[in-house]
Amino acid sequence: MDEIKILTEGDSSVLIEFGKEISPQINGRITTLVRMIKGQQIEGVTDLIPAFCSLLINYDPRVIRFEALKRRLEDLLKLDVESTRSDIRIFEIPVCYGGTYGPDLENIARHGGLTEKEVIQIHASRDYLIYMLGFLPGFSYLGGLDERIHTPRLANPRIRIPAGSVGIGGSQTGIYPLDSPGGWQLLGMTPVKTYDPHREEPILFEAGDYIRFVPVSEKEYKEIKKQVDERSYQCIVHRKEV
């Protein structure tokens, strides 16, 4: 509790700071608090926005005053958050690497002194924690990229990166949910829509979940894309107790 600060952000927002360190432990505390607040269904709370080391809470001051909300939050923060955690979700994201799907795979391999096959194996070898969502709807900031494939952003960003592109920007990797400009090095593409405004839940995952990239062939990519377009594809989700 000593390092946690509850601050006002304007007249209708509260910022809870959990220190300055970016770590899975702090992210776990933020994710747990989000679940606890949702479970409490605190009247007046309108939105919860987790970030790397903080949680922004938007509220309606006509429904709940800052002092009352702060007391509710302090009570929740005093609880044993470890005992309230249940499980985590790991989303399998199929990716077709290289070629027209990943035009910068060769650059990434050359920068790391690796073969393209080694880059793919390394990139798909671990589960990535979603620290936060931002920049674009459903754009996930992932932690845990292997240092061997850290790659600087492009010197000249592209005007348009297709939705579904999987890229590396410095020490981070992620998926572009929409067509947009960008400077990340592209190593593959997924047919899965991480953001779809026509879905009941437009954003596929949330902060605190994990992503597991699974290499697929071009034929498999096209088969999955057809299912996605027909709205018959179901993303594989693993659950792991913590």
Describe the structure concisely.
The protein is an alpha+beta fold and 242 residues long. It has helices at 24-40, 66-77, 81-84, 105-112, 116-123, 218-229; strands at residues 5-8, 13-17, 45-50, 54-59, 87-97, 127-133, 140-143, 158-161, 165-169, 172-175, 180-182, 185-189, 210-215, 237-241. The protein is built from 6 helices and 14 strands.
Structural class comes to alpha+beta
Helix count, per DSSP? Answer: 6
Task: Name the overall outline.
Answer: elongated
Order of helices and strands: EEHEEHHEHHEEEEEEEEHE
Instruction: Give the integer mean of the pLDDT values.
Output: 91
Descriptive key words:
8-stranded mixed beta sheet; 4-stranded antiparallel beta sheet; 6 helices; elongated
Write the layout of secondary structure elements.
Elements: E1 5-8, E2 13-17, H1 24-40, E3 45-50, E4 54-59, H2 66-77, H3 81-84, E5 87-97, H4 105-112, H5 116-123, E6 127-133, E7 140-143, E8 158-161, E9 165-169, E10 172-175, E11 180-182, E12 185-189, E13 210-215, H6 218-229, E14 237-241
Parallel strand pairs: 5-13
Antiparallel strand pairs: 1-2, 2-4, 3-4, 5-12, 5-14, 6-7, 6-13, 8-11, 9-10, 9-12
